[in-house]
Each structure stands twice: as C-alpha cells, then as structure tokens.
Write a structure and sequence with these properties.
Blueprint lengths: L1 H17 L5 E12 L3 E12 L5 E3 L1 E8 L2 E8 L2 E3 L3 E12 H4 L1 H9 L5 E11 L2 E10 L2
Antiparallel strand pairs: 1-2, 2-7, 3-6, 4-5, 4-8, 8-9
Length: about 140
C-alpha cells in the first residue's frame, strides 16, 4: 500500500513538471524601481499561464535579460506552483549598472520611445533522475 502511494505521488509530481511544456510565458510589465548614480533598478513581472488540467511545478527559471537586444544580466527566479487553468505573475527586482545598459537604451529613454525587453533561457524542474530543462523566450507584451 505504501509502495502504491509513493508511486502515485511521484507520478503526479512528474506530471506536474512535464505539463510545464504547455505553459505560456509573457513579460507583462517592466517598471523602473529606482536609480542611483551608478545603477538602475528594474521590476520585472512575468505572467505564467497554465492551460493544463493539472497544477504545474516550476523549480527554477534561469534567464538572460535583454534590453534593446543587448544582454544585460542573468535572472534566476524562485520555485513556483501554477494552479490548473490559472495565470500567476512572478516578479523579480534587478539592479543593473549603467555601463551594462549601453547607449541604445539611454537614447531610447531620452527620445521617449518604447524599449524592447526580452528574457531567454531555460525553465527547469527537478526529478528523481535529475533536472529536466526546457528552453523559453519571454517577450514583452
């Protein structure tokens, strides 16, 4: 009986993680959180939508953050559970030194035009046989 319970619970855990492939990701908002003489703080908001009939578990998101197609820094997001047929917003606060931002962003801000943001990397889940990762690119809506 105990063996059957462990088998079912590990199967559910695996289903939650493999259902991740059908989830959609969108960078819904990027806000300026503050700035100093040396850096800028950005607040990122990523919507994760789960269309699956089972809750989805994301153990880690390792992403590169691009501003105007220029790679700025790496973003690692904490584990999150997304309920079935729901959307959950995951947020991150980034501190980016000005020298990393580059001139295209500074000119874009001065000109008042929209800035293009993108996240690209992997979404990972832990399993009994090791981590399984899926590539993901998250564009700004």
């Amino acid at each position: 009986m105990i063996l059957a319970f462990l088998s079912v619970s590990s199967c559910t855990s695996l289903q939650q993680r493999l259902s991740l492939k059908k989830c959609t990701f969108a960078l819904t908002r990027v806000d300026i959180g503050g700035f100093t003489l040396s850096d800028l703080t950005l607040e990122l908001y990523i919507a994760v939508t789960n269309p699956n009939p089972i809750d989805v578990s994301i153990d880690r998101m390792d992403l590169d953050f691009y501003i105007e197609d220029q790679k700025t820094l790496k973003v690692t997001l904490k584990p999150v559970m997304i309920q079935t047929h729901k959307t959950r917003t995951v947020d991150a606060s980034l501190i980016i030194p000005y020298e990393t931002l580059g001139m295209p962003l500074i000119h874009g801000i001065k000109e008042g035009r929209d800035i293009k943001y993108r996240l690209s990397g992997t979404v990972s889940m832990d399993t009994a046989i090791g981590a399984i990762s899926f590539p993901v690119t998250i564009l700004q809506n």
